Amino acid sequence: MVGSYWHNFLGATILSVYVFLLSLLNNTPQASIERALLTFIISLILIQLMRWGVTYITKKNHQQNINKHNSSNENPDYNESDVELDVEETANHVRTMMNEEQLER
């Protein structure tokens, strides 16, 4: 799961302190504390739901990437000799470019 319960409590605490301070300007201290506690509980639940959602999406995307990778490895058109030829061709091209660069100096 993404994050930890510490992140839940930290986010809920910051939000509830913010609500308490804003509510204290217009309400009695008791009403402000009640609003802050209610905000703490609601935000704790919402943050947990968001964490579960992010975890679900991340696992789903990760599984799709694994499936794509596995299907690409099973490609019958894949030939290692073609890859080796591409590597040799690239190496020759790089050598040519380096030689031309040294001749220009």
Could you explain how this protein is built, in words?
The structure is a single chain. This protein has 105 residues and is mostly helical. The chain folds into 2 domains: 5-74; 80-105. It is 86% helix and 0% strand. The chain has 3 helices and no strands. The chain has helices at residues 5-24, 29-73, 80-104. Helix 1 runs antiparallel to helix 2. The longest helix is centred in the middle third of the chain and has 45 residues, at 29-73. The two termini are 57 Å apart. The model has no long low-confidence stretch (mean pLDDT 82).
Number of helices: 3
Q: Per DSSP, what share of the residues sits in E-state strands of 2 or more residues? A: under 5%
Mean pLDDT: 82
Overall 3D shape? elongated
Total strands: the figure is 0
Separation of termini? Answer: 57 Å
Low-confidence stretches: none
- The ordered H/E elements are HHH
Radius of gyration: 29 Å
* Secondary-structure content class: mainly alpha
Described by strand count, sense and barrel closure, the largest sheet is: none
Keywords: Membrane, Transmembrane, Transmembrane helix
Transmembrane segments: 6-25, 37-54
